[in-house]
Design goal:
Layout: H1 3-17, H2 23-29, H3 36-44, E1 48-51, E2 54-57, H4 59-82, H5 87-98, H6 103-112, H7 129-133, E3 142-144, E4 153-159, H8 164-173, E5 180-185, E6 190-194, E7 197-201, H9 203-207, E8 209-214
C-alpha cells in the first residue's frame, strides 16, 4: 500500500466520521489529488466499494484505514505534547510520521503517551493491542545489534556512522533502516542473515547498528 493510497483511505475515514461518503467530501479531506483510476485501483485491491455515488470500505479496507488513522493521530499527539510543535507544523510532520511508523514503535509511542483517546483536534484515536492490554511500561527494545544473541531477530532502526566509508558499505549491502536481520553466530566472527544473504561484520560496525528487538 503506497502513501498515495494511504492518504485516500485516510480521507475516506475522516469523511465517514461525519457520515459523508461522496467523492466530493472525500476530495475535500484528502491531502493529495487523486483520480478515478486511483479509486478503481483501490477497489480492485478489495479496499473500497463504489456504489450509488457512495465510497465505502470493505472489511479489509476499514482495518487498514483504522491503522493509518491511529498512526496519524498518535503522531499528532506526539509532536504537540512531547515535541512541542506548533499546530501549523503538526499536520505536516504527523503526515510524514504516519507512513513510516513500525507497529512496534507505534505501540511504544502509544504507551509513552498514556494510551490517548483523542488527538489534539478532539478526534478519537482507534485503540491498539497495547491499549487493550493496558500496557504501562515502554520496553527498552532498541538495542545495539551486538546485544542480540544467536537466533534473535531485530529490525534496523538507525545506524550510527563510525565512518562514512563504513556507512556507505552497509548501505551498499542493503543494510538500511527497516531491514530485518537475524544473528547467525557471534564467534569466531559476528555473522547476520537478512534477505537471503549472510554477512560477517566487524565488531565496531556491529556496535553502531541499532535494532528494534523482535520477540516471537
Amino acid at each position: 500500500m503506497n502513501e498515495k493510497f494511504e492518504e485516500i483511505l485516510e480521507a475516506i475515514w475522516v469523511a465517514s466520521e461525519s457520515s459523508l461518503y461522496s467523492l466530493d467530501a472525500i476530495r475535500e479531506r484528502c491531502a493529495i489529488a487523486f483520480t478515478a483510476q486511483d479509486l478503481a485501483d483501490l477497489q480492485g485491491e478489495g479496499m473500497i466499494i463504489q456504489n450509488e455515488g457512495k465510497i465505502l470500505f470493505t472489511n479489509e479496507g476499514k482495518i487498514l484505514a483504522e491503522g493509518i488513522i491511529r498512526r496519524h493521530r498518535l503522531a499528532e499527539v506526539l509532536v504537540t505534547s512531547i515535541l512541542k510543535m506548533k499546530s501549523l507544523e503538526m499536520e505536516k510532520i504527523a503526515c510524514q510520521v504516519e507512513h513510516c511508523l513500525l507497529p512496534e514503535v507505534e505501540e511504544s509511542i502509544c504507551t509513552l503517551l498514556g494510551h490517548p483517546e483523542l488527538c489534539p483536534d478532539g478526534k478519537p484515536i482507534p485503540k491498539g493491542r497495547c491499549c487493550d492490554r493496558g500496557q504501562k511500561v515502554v520496553n527498552s527494545t532498541v538495542v545495539s545489534l551486538a546485544e542480540l544473541k544467536p537466533g534473535e531477530k531485530g529490525k534496523i532502526t538507525y545506524i550510527k556512522p563510525g565512518s562514512h566509508s563504513n556507512l556507505h558499505q552497509l548501505i551498499s549491502f542493503g543494510l538500511t533502516p527497516g531491514v530485518m536481520v537475524t544473528v547467525h553466530r557471534k564467534s569466531p566472527a559476528f555473522c547476520i542473515k537478512f534477505e537471503n544473504t549472510e554477512l560477517a561484520l566487524d565488531e565496531e560496525i556491529v556496535k553502531n547498528i541499532f535494532v528494534w528487538r523482535l520477540v516471537d
